[in-house]
Hints:
Layout: E1 6-10, H1 16-25, E2 30-35, E3 41-43, E4 46-50, H2 58-69, E5 75-78, H3 96-121, E6 131-135, H4 148-168, E7 174-181, H5 194-206, E8 214-218, E9 222-223
Parallel strand pairs: 1-2, 1-5, 2-4, 5-6, 6-7, 7-8
Antiparallel strand pairs: 3-4, 8-9
Helix pairs in contact: 1-5, 2-3, 3-4
Amino acid sequence: MSSSPVILILGAGPNVGQHVAQAFAAKGYKVALASRTAKEESTEDGINISSDLSDPESVVNLFSKVKESLGLPSVVVYNAGAATSNDAKDPLSLPLADFIRDLNINTTSAFVAAQQAVSAFKQLPDSASKTFIYTGNILNTTIMAPLMDLGVGKSATAHIIQSAAAAYAERGFKFYYADERKADGSAAYFSIDGEAHGKHYLQLAEGKEQGPWQQTFVKGMGYKKFPVV
């Protein structure tokens, strides 16, 4: 088991997930990557784990695998997301099965990951980062008519993050909802920048105290507070 710090990234896709992994690996972190399509393998520097986050109960087993292979994670990034388009004029026509699956991925599994992160943080030394970051977007403050279930998930998890940030700050545990924006405060949407995420997430992890839980940030500028839409 490594003595180097460990980061676990759930939802390790080719953009944000991979750039966050690279940023932390460059700082000496061992990296655990979890995704539905991952080919299970491990090296001295990290591990890839196949994980279906539509099943919240699988998250507990995922943390166990990371602990056994690398040690307790001091940074946990929840980067998974799911959305099923709905009729903009009839949002409640969305099939229940799709709503439940996407809510599991966007919120319920994130809740379990946060629980497991707290359990790990309690066992780590004071010097450890103890940071949980959820990759969000603007949909916790506004609506996008065809993506109701994504907005539900982001809004619910934003509340979890806000609650955790307030509750655990005195213990040195940090919780963040990260939302990349354009310089004018509008949503980045599909133009999000993976490298900017990696840089910003590393700054959050290296911070000594809880900052604003809602981390709206701009590429090349970092954190910037915007009015609620």
